[in-house]
UniProtKB/TrEMBL annotation:
It catalyses: Hydrolyzes proteins with a preference for Tyr or Phe in the P1' position. Has no action on amino-acid p-nitroanilides. SUPFAM superfamilies: Metalloproteases ('zincins'), catalytic domain. Keywords: Disulfide bond, Hydrolase, Metal-binding, Metalloprotease, Protease, Secreted, Signal, Zinc. GO terms for molecular function: hydrolase activity. Belongs to the peptidase M7 family. Residues 1-27 form the signal peptide. This is Extracellular small neutral protease. The lineage of its organism: Bacteria, Bacillati, Actinomycetota, Actinomycetes, Kitasatosporales. Its cofactor is Zn(2+).
Amino acid sequence: MRTRTTAISAALGLGLALGLGAMPASAATPDDGGSTAKSSATRSGYIGESNKATEAFFNAVVKDALKKQAAKPGIQAVTVNYDASGAPTFASQIANSTAVWNAAVSNVQLAEGGSASFDYREGDDPRGSYASTDGHGNGYIFLDYAQNQEYDSNRVVAHETGHVLGLPDHYEGPCSELMSGGGPGPSCTNDKPDANEAAQVQSLWANGVASAAFDQAAFAK
């Protein structure tokens, strides 16, 4: 499931093909001037995730979407279900993220309940917030308490959910880019994808499934 293909490199773009490792924990964000006084959560997770892990997460979600498409051949849009029961503290932020993404794109929609493709979890983790897999084909989004207090929580959750839909990180981008994550600093409160990000998701999920973003034969094994 983790086999990389040239297709996914072309489809995801924005350097995902190069981002096989997490940003070093000591890497400075554009707003901190290289200071080491920032919390560990500030320097990881939301501003330094492992693209390999988020790619694996996306592939797991797409594999589940293929099953739905097989059950209903010809569907033009896929509904990706999630379980939010593991992150009750962030119920409103998760609901906001769902509304944001469902308004921005139409080829894929998010919905709570049903047969979940991924779940949200919460707690304390020095790595901060991140999107990953549990090693068994299921994806999850972990939301760190400290980080969601330092950064705008709606933006953090919507950003992490963007990984579910296939978007890689682009920390060098401006606040107007949702996938720039914590790069613009804690003052950035934008929780919506820009037009380019929405277009990427639309393209990835065209005709009901992100067929250009992964090796279907690999998933069939």
